Amino acid sequence: MREWNIVKLGDIAEFSNGINFDKTAYAKGIRLIGVLNFGNRFFPPYEELAEVKKEIVRQNDYLEKDDIVFVRSNGNKELVGRCMLIDDVSIPLTYSGFCIRCRLINKQEYNPIFFTYYFKSKLFRRAMSGTAVGANIQNLSQGRLASHTLKVPNYETQIKIADVLFSYEKYIDNNQKQIKLLEEAAQRLYKEWFVDLKFPGHENVEIVDGVPEGWSFRPVSSFGEVVTGKTPSTSKSEYYGGGIPFVKIPDMHGVVFPIVTETTLSKQGATSQSNKFIPKNSIMVSCIATVGLVNIAVADCQTNQQINSLILKDQSNLYYMYASMKRLKELLDGVGSNGATMTNVNKSKFERIEILYPDEELVKRYQTFCTSIYDKIYGLSLVNMRLSEARDRLLPKLMSGEIEL
To answer: 5-152 maps to which CATH number?
Structure first.
């Protein structure tokens, strides 16, 4: 292996915490990266970011291209230590006080993409967690980051490693763009038919009190059984690490189908609360703290207590109800459209949410239209899973120098 030099992060990078503010700061102004924007992303989801007033952002609080932003602290320990690379500052960006910015001092010697991948590696997470497993980092601070030492190859090798790993990212990103376009097509038709009421034959249907004749409002509970998840005892290690998916809010970001979950349950863990199983094609909705993320279960699974799931009586309602749940924030009082306002939607309140339901024939036509779309989305999601797995197998070998380039 070629010589790799040992460097101390504090000698090659500067660190800074993000801005602190209260809910009155949310307004049109400067886009804000917060903890909930991370997920498993490499770059921020710029179009999804909330905004804060310009006057609360100091000059040093603005992000620059090639900055790396970490989750500093969060109630969900799985998110702590996650990072994203800033690749676009055409629109001004800042970051919350629950995050830390890392800015490499000499980018001609230290490549930001290489370092972002290093920070996503198990080598780094093990070092920050202080355990051999390195699954969860309890906390992160500027001092802890600055004191961390690592082996770094020469700049040319950094570029080669970054290029190999980033080639996977490009494929994944391209598939994600296709998924987004496909889902937008389904959502556009839903809006046209069921929100704007421009459905086929609408010219011949009488509108009574703003609702087409024959349509009615129905509570969510009328469509099936609602199950609120629960977390098995975390003190019992034998409850975890099996083959049963355990869906939590971080698994739901940016996907339709949570094919991979960070945490899995053993059969023993799942059966400790067997009434919490939900089957394939259940609709999962985040209802505590982060409200309005919606996924479709791909297999029998369980969720944590932040998620309400709807087990449908009639599968022909699947994509209609999925699209309806995507509008959850519009159906609830006290929830901001920019996602900044937080609320809790317990099982009882969730069951009582009123859904405008059209005639069954129209719903079936929408289901038929959507089936091929979501089949394609599922296929692309599977490809992305395999690409991610291949990249993640390669990552530690490249970062440790086990594989030379």
So the answer is: 3.90.220.20
